[in-house]
Amino acid sequence: QVQLVQSGGGLVQAGDSLSLSCAASGRTLRNVAKAWLRQPPGKEREFVAAITRTGGGTVYDDSVKGRFTISTDNAKSTVFLQMNSLKTDDSAIYYCALGARTILSSLRRPDQYTYWGQGTQVTVGS
């Protein structure tokens, strides 16, 4: 059974940095797409960043490009999201996700991910 356990998050001020972690158990992170998505208040879940199944590339939403960095430690089966220069618009519940069959063209689609973390709240004050 695959489980994703998230940690990190909290309340910060605009311009601050925050790091999220997602520890996977029950499967390796090899050959699986790894992603972070978020759900702002009153909105649908949206794509933030992903690492391709092969691990050879990363994809970011334009709204976070240059500020957020997704990375992975395969030995520890952990996925990270480093968030810098946070803005109030970044406030949301953040989810990590894994997709065993997610291809490059589908990385941005939430419905392409099979396994999900429990979600963690990130609130950015002005």
How would you characterize this protein structure?
With 126 residues, the chain is mainly β. It is built from no helices and eleven strands. Strands 2, 4, 5, 6, 9, 10 and 11 form a seven-stranded mixed beta sheet that branches. β4 (33-39) and β5 (46-51) form a beta hairpin. The protein is globular and about 40 Å long. The model has no long low-confidence stretch (mean pLDDT 94).
Structural class: mainly beta
Query: In angstroms, what separates the terminal alpha carbons?
Result: 41 Å
**How is the main sheet built?**
7 strands, mixed
What percentage of the residues does DSSP assign to strands (E)? over 45%
Which stretches of 5+ consecutive residues score pLDDT under 50?
A: none
* Cα gyration radius (Å): 13 Å
Number of helices: 0
Net shape: globular
Task: Name the helicity range.
Answer: under 10%
Order of helices and strands: EEEEEEEEEEE
What number is the mean pLDDT?
A: 94
Number of DSSP strands? 11
Can I get a quick summary?
The protein is built from no helices and eleven strands.
Which characteristics define this entry?
126 residues; mainly beta; seven-stranded mixed β-sheet; four-stranded antiparallel β-sheet; globular
Layout of secondary structure:
Layout: E1 3-8, E2 10-13, E3 18-25, E4 33-39, E5 46-51, E6 58-60, E7 68-73, E8 78-83, E9 92-99, E10 115-116, E11 120-125
Parallel strand pairs: 2-11
Antiparallel strand pairs: 1-3, 3-8, 4-5, 4-9, 5-6, 7-8, 9-10, 9-11
